[in-house]
Amino acid sequence: MMKKTAKLFIISGPSGVGKSTVIHRALQNFTDFYFSVSATTRCARPGEKEGIDYFFIGKEEFEKGIQNQQFLEYTCYCENYYGTPRKAVEEHLNLGYNVLLDIEIEGASQVKQHMPDSVTVFIVPPDLQELERRLRSRGTDSEDKIAGRLARAKKEFEKAPDYDYLIINDNVENASQELTAIIQAEQFRYDCRKAVLEV
Amino acid sequence: MMKKTAKLFIISGPSGVGKSTVIHRALQNFTDFYFSVSATTRCARPGEKEGIDYFFIGKEEFEKGIQNQQFLEYTCYCENYYGTPRKAVEEHLNLGYNVLLDIEIEGASQVKQHMPDSVTVFIVPPDLQELERRLRSRGTDSEDKIAGRLARAKKEFEKAPDYDYLIINDNVENASQELTAIIQAEQFRYDCRKAVLEV
Question: The whole model's pTM is what?
Fold first, then answer.
């Protein structure tokens, strides 16, 4: 049947933009995806599950992993490491699975540099006021932390031009439909499909 | 509300592949499209309507149009001219409408050269045997003409790598859904949407 080339999708966006919901709804439309689970040195929050939300590992182990190039990208944020385990990503791509990474902007730029064929999507809120409202309504962050996240989001917006696609999450239904269309269309690119013409 | 940049979509594919059906089904999902009508010097076939299927004009008028650069692209095929009137395309793009051209490979390459931001889609049949079957079932072409169209299709397949996207029309429902996803996704590209971040 039709052969195709697997693709790496990188999704970024400011904290509080509703990224996870959008991603998980969109991925329900696909069966051939591997959603990469990051490793981190921060402690698990209530409800977070090992291997589902993160791989929770020690600082020493993480730093050994960095030395051994076991991370596709990594970053340090609020004194904790976050990184994408390289092996699982590469293995799934080789098996023909598309892979999706939900990672920070710095990490995204590291991966795009090494894998220029990867597709990058930036999710933004309709505006900063709405982001502030959403961060506040989560009720998990202090005022200081919210101010910090907003300042960070403002800086992150400046990096949007480095991304291939831009999704404005004014409505989770629309936004996940948009991500679905992007993922589909990218698989219809000539490079992904050329094998079929080589019959 | 959200400002966006209009895009030019160029669709090509061998005669008999079912392009028109796929395009018209896909365009039903959009309200902001202008489907470009070509001009030609060939005679109208039974059922073809002026201004809907083609603008039917004389050879002299066409050649004057070429001289005055009134065509975005043109080609000569079976001793008849076919061309895309430039003015309607440019005016609709300026008004914010997306524009779709259903044109031959040579014309597509001319337009892409002048408008590198345009999006090109190549529609192919699942295989040449299926194309032959479809051409035969139309019952409009002689055996000679069918052989000619098949030889041409084979040559055209070689140009597929010049296109951004490849759609395999094994099923008109799937193919038009694929074209829909491509048209949607292209409008989510950063370049198309950046205006929203400039607020």
Answer: 0.87
